Amino acid sequence: MNSAVQVCWEKAARYFDVEEKYVYCTKDRYVIDPKEAVDLIDENTIGICSILGTTYTGEYEDTKAINDLLVERNLDIPIHVDAASGGFVAPFVKPDLIWDFRLEKVVSINVSGHKYGLVYPGVGWCIWRDPKFLPTELIFNINYLGADQASLTLNFSRGASQVLGQYYQLIRLGKSGYRAIMFNLTKTADYLAASVQKMGFLLMSKTRGEGLPLVAFRLNPDDGHLFDEFAIAHQLRQRGWVVPAYTMAPHSEGLKMMRVVVREDFSRSRCEALIADIKLAMETLGKMDEQKVKEHKEHIKQHGTNTGRHKKMNQQFTDEKHSLQGKTGKTHAVC
């Protein structure tokens, strides 16, 4: 799997004692390399993860290329598609993109309802290609709720409000409603992407529906700015915007970046306001001399840029070495 996976994959591997094999990003490639992924397969490999919409740049990984390589090499390895973000976007914006059960090696897909499924947090879905791919050891039959039921969840007792919320949205919006919303979000993201490029930023995300409706960007190192992306994020926070700044996944030369996720309530007028505030932040920071920028960076270090909390909290957990963050300093993008 890609080293840019969401932290839930690291947790799952840790909890179930599964060895992870990572395909690392580079300064020019932020998604999995299909050939490199397939080359990592050995006799103990249980599957390959392909991400439909990475948390860092929103790009869709090439599931079809992975599938075709597995078929070409006659390798009986299943693919799980992590479509947490893209599962409710790609089918409506890029219906011709082949990433799902049309590929013979794809056996399971997960999607989050609380992202572009347009439901409040707490609901996610997993779909299997065929019942034979769901191990019977994970199914527990119970009858103490008044009828025979099959249970396969891992989260135990919880309310059904999120399921009802998803059901309501699917019935209310339907395909046409989701399509209209996702196209609108894509148009807004494209407008924002074009605007930050005009300001001199380097665009790291895709446009025109080739990825999620988000805009990932970074400063052009050739412009010689004294400030960095964290300083811009701090300035934007003073204007009421929480735009995360973080470093890319391991082995991508510590690239700093920022990301704006375009949500359903992010209208064109709000987009214009954000663009104006980014310009203002750039102008404000651009007027600072080297000493002022240094003082500004120290201030940011003392006061958490993205959360507003002091960075010295939870000191007892800072020395762990089992995660990608502990091993490499990887930051985890907000999901």
From TrEMBL:
A Pfam family that the UniProt record links to this protein: Pyridoxal_deC
EC number, as in UniProt: 4.1.1.15
Any GO BP: L-glutamate catabolic process
Cofactor: pyridoxal 5'-phosphate
Keywords recorded for this protein, A-Z: Decarboxylase, Lyase, Pyridoxal phosphate
Keyword Lyase: yes
Full protein name: Glutamate decarboxylase
Known catalytic reactions: L-glutamate + H(+) = 4-aminobutanoate + CO2
Signal peptide: none
Database matches in NCBIfam families: Glu-decarb-GAD
Species, as recorded: Aureobasidium pullulans (Black yeast)
